[in-house]
Amino acid sequence: MVLLALMLLTGCGSPAADPPAVADTPFDSQPPPPPFRYLGEANVEQFSMPVGPVCFDAPLGPPDGEGYLVSQGFGGPRDHLGEDWRGPGVDGGLGDTVAAVCDGQVITARDYGVGGWGKVVRVVHRYGEEQWVESLYAHLERIDVEPGQRVARGERLGTLGDADGQTSPHLHLELRESMNLPLWHGYDREARGWIEPRAFIRAHRTDCPERRSTGGALHQGTTAQHAGPPVVEPAGQPAWTELEPGLELAVFRSPGPSTDGDSTITVLRVDPEHFEPVLLMASQTGTGEATAREWAQEHGLVAAINPSMFETDRRTSTFYMRVGDHDNNPAHHPRANAWLAFGPREPGLAPVRILDPSCDDVALRERYHTVIQSYRMRTCAGSTAWKPSARIWSHASLGVDVDGRLLLLHARSPWSTHDFTEIVAGLPIGLRSLQYAEGGPEASLYLRSAGLELERVGSYETGFFESDANQHAWELPNVLGVRRRVAATTAEPG
Q: Which of 196, 219, 242 is the last residue of a domain?
C-alpha cells in the first residue's frame, strides 16, 4: 500500500499529472516492523517520478518560520522524535496556518481522537533520484486536505491546534526517512528512521527561488525573547525595565567574558509587596515533571526558576525543602549553608530572606511557611563562599537584595561558581545574599509579563554536557514561582 502511494507522488517542486486518490494508509495502527526498513533498501526501480528542485520550508511562517519558535527540539533528555513549534504569547499561535514543507502527496489525514495525537496529516516528498522523506504534522485544530491529495510547498494542510485540549497549543513536526514507520509515540530512545526537522530543512534549500533570511525559527534556538530589555554594561546605572509595579528586569553583560555564549546575566527583581513567591513540587501537586514555562502556564505564575538541585528519582530535592507541612526532603544537608525562607508565619519577620548561619539564627526557618536549602554562594558578610575551580557551567541562582527584594538570576554562558558569584557581586543590583539553584542544561528561567515572554535555558556543564548546543528547556520536578498577590491587579498589563 505504501509503495503504491509513493509511485504516485510528484517530485519535490516538479509538475505532474494529478494522481488518483489513495486510501488512508493502514500502517498507523500497526506495530513497528523489526527491523525498520528504510526506503533506500526498497526496489527503487519502481519509482519513475521526475526529480524536482531541492526546496524545503518551515511549516509555520514559511519560508523561515518568522515569528515562531521551537519550544522543544529533536532528541534531548526526553528522546523527542520531532520538534514542537509554537507562536509567541499565551495562545501559542492557535489557529495559525500549518503549511507543507515541500511538494508531495498526502497519505494520512485523520483525527486519532484521544491519546495525545489529535488530528494528524502525513505527507511524503521526493527530493532526489532515490531520496524520500515523510513529514508528519500533529495536534492540528483542523485538517484542510484529504488522503491522496497532491500538495505544493507552502500549501495549507490545516491549522495549529492543541489536540482538542490534550496539549498546550503547538505543532508537533516529525520528518522520517523510513516510509514504513507507524504513528508511534513521539518519544523513543530508538530514533532510527527519524531525522531532525530543522537541520534537514536548512540543509535542503539549495534550489529555493526566494531569497532566504537568517531569521525565524529555522535559524534560532528554543529560547523565546520577545521584545526583551537591552543588554547593559555593569559599569553604568542598571537599565531596569519595569514590567509592572514591583517587577523589574535587567540583562547585564559580564566584564569577564565566558568561554561560550554571550556572557550575559539576566536578573528579575521581585518586590514581595506586590508578588508572592510560590514553591511548587511534583511530590505535592501529584503531577509529573514540566518545563518552567509549563509550570508557569499551568499555575498562573508570572515567572518560574529552579529552586534547587534534585535527586535521581526526579522528585526529591538534594537539600532540605518544605512547603507548610509537606516535606519534599526533610534532611538538613550539612554542607549547604543557605536557607531561602518566605511566607512568614508571624508578624515582624521579613517577607523573604536568605538565612546564613554566619550571621543569622537558622532556627528562624521554622517560623516561615516555605524553606529551600542550598549551597551558599555569597555570605551575608560580603565574601564569596566558593573556591576557584576549573569546572564551569550555566547558572540559575536565587538572591535577596539590600531592600529585601527577591532576585532570580540566570546565565546560560558558563563560569565557575566562584567566578559567577564574583561577577554578580559586582553588578549594580544591591546584592545582599545569594544561593545556588541549579547548573548546566537544567538551569531554567521563564517570564511572561506586560507583553514580554522570555525563556532562558542553560547548556554547558563540565563533565556532563560540555557544549553550548542545548536548545531544550528541561523538565523540572520543582519550581520556584512568582505570582501576583490578590491585592494587585490580576489582568496582565499590555
A: 219
The residue segments making up the domain with residue 148 are: 2-219
- pTM, to two decimals: 0.58
Three-state secondary structure string covering 116-181? CCCEEEEEEEEEECCEEEEEEEEEECEECCCCCCEECCCCEEEECECCCCCCCCEEEEEEECCCCC
Mean pLDDT of each 10-residue bin along the chain, 494 residues long:
35 37 32 32 35 82 86 80 83 91 92 88 85 94 94 95 88 90 85 92 78 55 46 63 94 90 94 97 88 94 97 93 96 95 96 95 95 94 93 97 97 96 95 96 93 90 86 90 74 40
Does residue 368 lie within any of the structural domains? yes
**Residue 489 belongs to some domain of the structure:** no
Burial 220-245 (b: 16+ CB within 10 A, else e): bbbbbbeeebeebebeeebeebebbe
Residue 341 belongs to a domain: yes
**For the chain, what is the domain count?**
2
Co-location of 27 and 169 in the same domain: yes
User: Whose grid coordinates read 517530485?
Assistant: 11
- Does residue 344 have a cis peptide bond before it, meaning omega lies within 30 degrees of 0? no
Residue 241 to residues 244, 250, 444, Cα–Cα distance (Å): 9, 6, 20
Residue 363's φ and ψ, nearest 5 degrees, are -65, -15
Cα 393 to chain center, whole Å?
18
CA separation for the pair 481, 307 (Å, rounded): 9
Same domain? For 200 and 343 the reply is: no
208 and 245, same domain (yes or no):
no
pLDDT at 224: 41
Return the HEC string of 283-351: HHHCCCCECHHHHHHHHCCCEEECCCCECCCCCCECCCEEECCEEEECCCCCCCCEEEEEEECCCCCCC
